[in-house]
């Protein structure tokens, strides 16, 4: 479980840095510059350490650099407000790739219930698309406080809740399958 949070933290590091710095300082340009620098440093560190990088890592870096660069060039607050929706849509599109969740799951899950892992991956993609649409709807209001609340509380809360539901559902299904397999296997010594 700790490994899952570490990987998610790596994937969303620059987004977290941006949001925290923006909420603390209110300075879009500073938050963007630090997020870009953090994403590039994280990528370089992983390459130097020889870590295997997957599609999510490259996509995350590209989103931060491209969208962060556009933020710096335009200095348009409306773009900054809509920026997380682009990230959600892009991540949702990546999550449509079958098997993307496998790097986050222990082997017992992917070996015992692979069909549920695939379905959960698509459910995560749908959640990302819904959250992206929500960001656009909130950005259209132009209310910075509402936007900050949505991005920091609603969007993160929805992901935490989805993770918790997925964890419980996977655990229940795996337990049932393992008990059923144990009940149908021949008893030793009888």
TrEMBL record:
InterPro entries membership: YciB (IPR006008)
Gene Ontology CC terms: plasma membrane
Keyword list, A-Z: Cell membrane, Membrane, Transmembrane, Transmembrane helix
Spans through the membrane: 12-41, 53-73, 79-96, 116-141, 147-170
Protein name, UniProt field: Intracellular septation protein
Source species: Tardiphaga robiniae
């Amino acid at each position: 479980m700790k490994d899952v949070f570490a990987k998610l933290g790596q994937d969303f590091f620059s987004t977290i840095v941006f949001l925290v710095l923006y909420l603390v300082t209110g300075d879009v340009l500073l938050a963007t510059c630090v997020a870009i620098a953090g994403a590039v440093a994280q990528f370089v560190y992983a390459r130097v350490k020889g870590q295997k990088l997957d599609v999510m890592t490259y996509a995350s870096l590209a989103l931060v650099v491209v969208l962060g660069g556009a933020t710096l060039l335009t200095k348009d607050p409306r773009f900054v407000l809509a920026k997380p929706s682009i990230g959600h849509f892009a991540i949702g599109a990546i999550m449509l790739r079958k098997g993307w969740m496998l790097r986050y799951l222990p082997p017992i899950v992917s070996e015992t219930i692979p069909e549920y892992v695939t379905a959960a991956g698509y459910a995560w993609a749908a959640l990302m698309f819904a959250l992206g649409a929500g960001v656009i709807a909130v950005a259209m209001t132009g209310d910075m406080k509402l936007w900050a609340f949505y991005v920091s509380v609603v969007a993160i809360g929805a992901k935490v809740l989805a993770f918790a539901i997925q964890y419980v559902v996977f655990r229940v299904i795996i337990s049932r399958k393992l008990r059923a397999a144990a009940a149908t296997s021949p008893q030793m010594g009888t």
